[in-house]
Amino acid sequence: MQRFEKSVRMAGAVALATVVAVGAVGCGGGGEAESGDAGSAEMAEAPAAAPRVFFVAPRDQTDHATEIPLGFTFGTEGFEVSPVPGEVSSPRADMGHYHLGVNAECLPAGEIIPAADPWVHFGDGSDGMEMTLEAGEHRFSVQIGDDEHRTLEGLCETITIRMEDGI
Q1: Which band of pLDDT confidence, cut at 50, 70 and 90, is reported for residue 88?
Q2: Is 3 exposed, middle or buried (CB count within 10 Å of its CB: 0-12, 13-18, 19+)?
Q3: What pLDDT, on the 0 to 100 scale, is given for residue 41?
Q4: What's the CA gap between 98 and 83, in Å, rounded?
Q5: What CATH number has the domain bearing residue 147?
Q6: Is the pLDDT of residue 100 over 80?
Q7: Are residues 104 and 139 in the same domain?
Q8: How far is CA 18 from the centre of its chain?
Q9: 68 and 32, same structural domain?
Q10: Residue 15 pLDDT exceeds 50
Q11: Residues near 90 by beta carbon (within 8 Å), at least 6 away in sequence
Q12: Burial 21-33 (b: 16+ CB within 10 A, else e)
Protein backbone atom coordinates (compact mmCIF):
# COMPACT_ATOMS: atom_id res chain seq x y z
CA MET A 1 0.00 0.00 0.00
CA GLN A 2 2.83 2.41 0.80
CA ARG A 3 4.31 1.75 -2.61
CA PHE A 4 0.95 2.63 -4.28
CA GLU A 5 0.63 5.88 -2.25
CA LYS A 6 4.22 6.82 -3.12
CA SER A 7 3.47 6.27 -6.86
CA VAL A 8 0.31 8.39 -6.65
CA ARG A 9 2.21 11.20 -4.88
CA MET A 10 4.96 11.09 -7.56
CA ALA A 11 2.39 11.09 -10.37
CA GLY A 12 0.71 14.07 -8.73
CA ALA A 13 4.03 15.92 -8.47
CA VAL A 14 4.81 15.22 -12.13
CA ALA A 15 1.35 16.41 -13.17
CA LEU A 16 1.74 19.57 -11.06
CA ALA A 17 5.19 20.26 -12.56
CA THR A 18 3.76 19.81 -16.06
CA VAL A 19 0.89 22.21 -15.35
CA VAL A 20 3.30 24.82 -13.95
CA ALA A 21 5.64 24.50 -16.96
CA VAL A 22 2.81 24.72 -19.50
CA GLY A 23 1.33 27.68 -17.66
CA ALA A 24 4.66 29.52 -17.61
CA VAL A 25 5.17 29.07 -21.35
CA GLY A 26 1.55 29.99 -22.12
CA CYS A 27 1.91 33.19 -20.07
CA GLY A 28 5.11 34.25 -21.77
CA GLY A 29 7.47 32.71 -19.21
CA GLY A 30 9.59 30.91 -21.84
CA GLY A 31 12.98 32.49 -22.49
CA GLU A 32 12.83 32.30 -26.30
CA ALA A 33 9.38 33.86 -26.55
CA GLU A 34 10.44 36.77 -24.35
CA SER A 35 13.59 37.59 -26.29
CA GLY A 36 11.74 37.21 -29.61
CA ASP A 37 8.97 39.54 -28.43
CA ALA A 38 11.46 42.12 -27.19
CA GLY A 39 13.31 41.98 -30.50
CA SER A 40 10.07 42.53 -32.41
CA ALA A 41 9.21 45.53 -30.25
CA GLU A 42 12.67 47.02 -30.80
CA MET A 43 12.43 46.44 -34.56
CA ALA A 44 9.01 48.10 -34.69
CA GLU A 45 10.37 51.15 -32.87
CA ALA A 46 13.61 51.41 -34.89
CA PRO A 47 13.50 54.14 -37.55
CA ALA A 48 13.63 52.99 -41.16
CA ALA A 49 17.05 53.32 -42.77
CA ALA A 50 17.45 55.95 -45.47
CA PRO A 51 17.03 54.51 -48.97
CA ARG A 52 20.27 53.81 -50.80
CA VAL A 53 21.59 52.64 -54.16
CA PHE A 54 24.81 50.68 -54.60
CA PHE A 55 26.94 48.54 -56.90
CA VAL A 56 26.50 44.83 -56.27
CA ALA A 57 29.26 44.30 -58.86
CA PRO A 58 31.93 45.31 -59.55
CA ARG A 59 33.38 46.25 -56.19
CA ASP A 60 35.15 49.55 -55.60
CA GLN A 61 38.94 49.61 -56.08
CA THR A 62 39.18 46.26 -57.90
CA ASP A 63 41.18 45.16 -60.97
CA HIS A 64 39.60 43.53 -64.01
CA ALA A 65 40.87 42.05 -67.28
CA THR A 66 40.26 44.06 -70.45
CA GLU A 67 39.76 40.80 -72.37
CA ILE A 68 36.50 40.04 -70.54
CA PRO A 69 33.39 42.27 -70.58
CA LEU A 70 32.86 43.86 -67.17
CA GLY A 71 29.52 43.00 -65.61
CA PHE A 72 27.60 45.69 -63.69
CA THR A 73 24.80 44.87 -61.27
CA PHE A 74 23.01 47.50 -59.17
CA GLY A 75 20.97 47.19 -56.00
CA THR A 76 18.79 49.31 -53.72
CA GLU A 77 17.56 49.21 -50.15
CA GLY A 78 14.40 50.98 -49.06
CA PHE A 79 13.52 52.06 -52.59
CA GLU A 80 11.57 50.44 -55.44
CA VAL A 81 13.00 50.18 -58.94
CA SER A 82 10.46 50.05 -61.75
CA PRO A 83 10.28 50.60 -65.52
CA VAL A 84 9.31 54.12 -66.55
CA PRO A 85 5.61 54.09 -67.52
CA GLY A 86 4.60 54.98 -71.08
CA GLU A 87 2.96 58.24 -70.04
CA VAL A 88 4.14 60.23 -67.04
CA SER A 89 1.86 62.91 -65.64
CA SER A 90 3.97 63.20 -62.48
CA PRO A 91 6.74 61.08 -60.95
CA ARG A 92 5.65 58.22 -58.72
CA ALA A 93 6.74 58.58 -55.09
CA ASP A 94 9.56 56.34 -53.81
CA MET A 95 10.00 54.73 -57.22
CA GLY A 96 12.57 55.19 -59.95
CA HIS A 97 15.13 53.51 -62.18
CA TYR A 98 18.90 53.18 -62.52
CA HIS A 99 21.31 55.34 -64.53
CA LEU A 100 25.00 54.54 -64.97
CA GLY A 101 27.49 57.37 -65.38
CA VAL A 102 30.65 56.22 -67.19
CA ASN A 103 33.66 58.20 -65.98
CA ALA A 104 31.14 60.54 -64.36
CA GLU A 105 30.37 61.79 -60.88
CA CYS A 106 27.00 61.90 -59.10
CA LEU A 107 24.74 64.73 -60.23
CA PRO A 108 23.16 67.08 -57.67
CA ALA A 109 19.68 66.23 -56.37
CA GLY A 110 16.88 67.56 -58.54
CA GLU A 111 18.88 67.63 -61.79
CA ILE A 112 17.66 65.79 -64.89
CA ILE A 113 20.08 63.06 -65.95
CA PRO A 114 21.12 63.64 -69.59
CA ALA A 115 19.89 61.09 -72.13
CA ALA A 116 23.36 60.93 -73.72
CA ASP A 117 27.00 60.14 -72.97
CA PRO A 118 28.28 59.64 -70.37
CA TRP A 119 24.96 58.33 -68.98
CA VAL A 120 23.30 54.98 -69.71
CA HIS A 121 19.58 54.83 -68.81
CA PHE A 122 17.83 51.71 -67.51
CA GLY A 123 14.26 52.96 -68.03
CA ASP A 124 13.13 49.37 -68.60
CA GLY A 125 13.73 48.65 -64.89
CA SER A 126 16.73 46.37 -65.48
CA ASP A 127 19.53 46.26 -62.92
CA GLY A 128 22.71 45.83 -64.92
CA MET A 129 24.68 45.29 -68.09
CA GLU A 130 28.07 44.24 -69.47
CA MET A 131 30.61 46.65 -70.93
CA THR A 132 33.99 46.25 -72.66
CA LEU A 133 36.52 48.81 -71.44
CA GLU A 134 40.05 49.83 -72.36
CA ALA A 135 42.94 49.56 -69.91
CA GLY A 136 43.14 52.26 -67.27
CA GLU A 137 41.28 53.61 -64.27
CA HIS A 138 37.53 54.25 -64.66
CA ARG A 139 34.93 55.86 -62.39
CA PHE A 140 31.29 54.81 -62.45
CA SER A 141 28.27 56.33 -60.74
CA VAL A 142 24.98 54.52 -60.32
CA GLN A 143 22.24 57.06 -59.73
CA ILE A 144 18.50 56.69 -59.29
CA GLY A 145 16.24 58.91 -61.35
CA ASP A 146 12.49 59.29 -60.99
CA ASP A 147 10.02 58.83 -63.87
CA GLU A 148 11.21 62.17 -65.28
CA HIS A 149 14.90 61.15 -64.94
CA ARG A 150 15.35 63.70 -62.14
CA THR A 151 17.96 62.76 -59.51
CA LEU A 152 16.88 62.07 -55.95
CA GLU A 153 18.67 63.09 -52.75
CA GLY A 154 21.19 60.53 -51.51
CA LEU A 155 20.54 57.93 -54.21
CA CYS A 156 23.93 57.78 -55.92
CA GLU A 157 27.16 55.84 -55.40
CA THR A 158 30.48 56.19 -57.22
CA ILE A 159 33.21 53.55 -57.51
CA THR A 160 36.62 53.37 -59.16
CA ILE A 161 37.90 50.25 -60.94
CA ARG A 162 41.04 49.46 -62.90
CA MET A 163 41.08 47.62 -66.20
CA GLU A 164 44.35 45.84 -67.10
CA ASP A 165 45.58 43.86 -70.08
CA GLY A 166 46.54 40.24 -69.45
CA ILE A 167 45.40 39.70 -65.88
Answers
A1: confident
A2: exposed
A3: 52
A4: 9
A5: 2.60.40.10
A6: yes
A7: yes
A8: 45
A9: no
A10: no
A11: 147
A12: eeeeeeeeeeeee
